[in-house]
Amino acid sequence: MGLKIFLSFIFVIFCIGILIVYWFIPFGTIEFGSKSSNFDLDVNQSGNMQFYQNMRYSDSKISYKIYDCPLQKKNDMEEAFNIISDLSILNFYLVNSNEEISVTCDSKNKIEDGLFVAGEGGPVYITKVDKFHVILKGKVLLIKESNCENPNIALHELLHALGFDHSENPDNIMYYISKCKQTIGQDQIDLINKLYSTPSQPDLTLENVSAVMRGKYLDVNMSIRNDGLRDSMESKILIYADDELVKEIKLDALRIGYGRIISFSNLWIKQINVNKLDFFIDYSFPELEKNNNRISLEVD
Ligand SMILES: [Zn+2]
To answer: Are residues 208 and 281 in the same domain?
Structure first.
């Protein structure tokens, strides 16, 4: 009898040992592959009117500041802002610092970097996201006097700062030589309205997600990027194994065009078999695309 109890005890210990080995020692590797594909969007809206495809500022409300300009040029510039506001969905507003468009009239203020036309102005800091080249800062250098009824030179420079290149049409305001009869093309206004019809929102997107199960342990690599038009706020990444939440990762705010790489290993998973992993960005604010917030991986 004593022997039987002893053997049963040994057997139980053995079973527990086997279970411990099974649950905690990583053996047997399962690779997961992606079954979903990312979205694709038309990125060719701006033709050759702009320096790069789809250049715009973050928002249709764009801040500006005018530095050291004589009264006439300051008035011309303000009139140019008003004309573009009236013709398009854009609005411009004056700020004291951190402006998006800086206007200077002193030829000593040479623009050293960025995309600009010599002696004029243009976008200075640009970030490329999925669909747009987002202009973070633009400059206008107003040197020449305008003798026209309309502030044609200021309008020309403002359009450069909005990403527009020179036009080959001598009647267009973006022709490289200024004449009073030149006008803004309707195609230029249409393009502005089309580019700014996309709301100024962030767009968090999951990329390059890969996962491997080693026994009961999960290793994950992934990246998250803000492909939108505005900095994102804090969010969470949720990971589900066969519809059960296994990990929650806090994600800090991401600036436009910035990304994070997240990787971890040896996350213990209690389920016996995992067939599907879901990765989900839990972002409770408006976004350009919600359908790039989730990726499912299945056993290869
Ligand atoms: Zn020019």
So the answer is: yes
